[in-house]
Amino acid sequence: MFFTNKELEKYIPIANLIAKTFGKNCEVVIHDLSIPQNSVVYAVNNHVTGRQVGQPFDHLVKQVLLSKNFDGDYTANYKIVTEDNREIKSSTALIRNSKGEVIGALCINYDLDPMKNIKEFLDEFMHVEQEKIENVKPFDNVIQIVDDLIDKIVSNTNIDNLKRKDKVSLIKFMDEKGIFLIKGAIEKVADKLNISKVTVYSYLDDIKKNKNC
Questions:
Q1: What single-letter DSSP state applies at residue 73?
Q2: Same domain, 113 and 149
Q3: Which H or E run includes 149?
Q4: Which of 5, 125, 155, 174 could be stapled to 179 by a disulfide with Cβ–Cβ 3.0 to 4.6 Å?
Q5: How confident is the model at residue 11 (pLDDT cuts 50, 70, 90)?
């Protein structure tokens, strides 16, 4: 390790700190841009991309300086791909001297490959079925179950003595429980309550309006 610019040596502890903090999958490289053809002057955890002291920079211009995200002397979280097809998340910051001149760059390369299994596990574990519930004709056994539910809901009431508010209350309960999502349920409820289908729809409209108030 040979630093032609001693100011860059000050960044070795920072490079080591970053690598130690984020572990073996995190590579940190220091570039001396006064020697572009041999800009790599320090690398820790260099098994990540195989960077070696004495090598030139690779992505500084195309993915850092020319990036639309380049701001404040750095570009963060751009992707590079290794020769063995591993995805690396990279970030690069320029290093300036006391005169404000760019003298080097600090590059962080994080190997995302070990994270893929974790991501796949989390994606599978967190997946839930978002099924859209519509008014459809269900299987016959479901129809029978819903018919029985309707019978039970109204069986303990004296239909002839039910007031409007009581009927609305029953219909509200059945609506909340999803009874009317079953095709044909409105007609069956209307028949059980001795009211018209239009009346059931009217009650449902009133229930909806009161809910939105």
A1: T
A2: no
A3: helix 140-155
A4: 174
A5: very high
| Helix-helix angle 164-176:185-192, to 10 degrees | 150
Cβ within 8 Å of residue 109, ≥6 positions away: 26, 27, 28, 29, 48, 49, 51, 80, 88, 89, 90
For the chain, helix, strand, coil in percent to 5 are 45, 20, 35
* Residue 62 Cα distances to 65, 66, 137, 143, angstroms: 6, 5, 58, 64
User: CB–CB of 31/11 below 8 Å?
Assistant: no
Q: How far apart are CA 184 and CA 186, in angstroms?
A: 6
Are 146 and 178 part of one and the same domain? yes
- 88 and 168 in a single domain? The answer is no
For residue 198, give the DSSP letter: H
109 and 57 belong to one structural domain: yes
- Asked, for residue 83, whether it belongs to a domain, the answer is yes
Q: Has residue 98 been placed in a domain?
A: yes
Structural domain that includes position 73: 6-117
Same domain, 113 and 10: yes
**Do both 150 and 60 map to the same domain?**
no
Same domain as 159, residue 72: no
97-125 average pLDDT score: 90
192: nearest Cα among 162, 151, 145: 151
16-51 in b/e burial notation, b at 16+ Cβ within 10 A?
Answer: eebbeeeeebbbbbbbbbeeeebbbbbbbbbebbeb
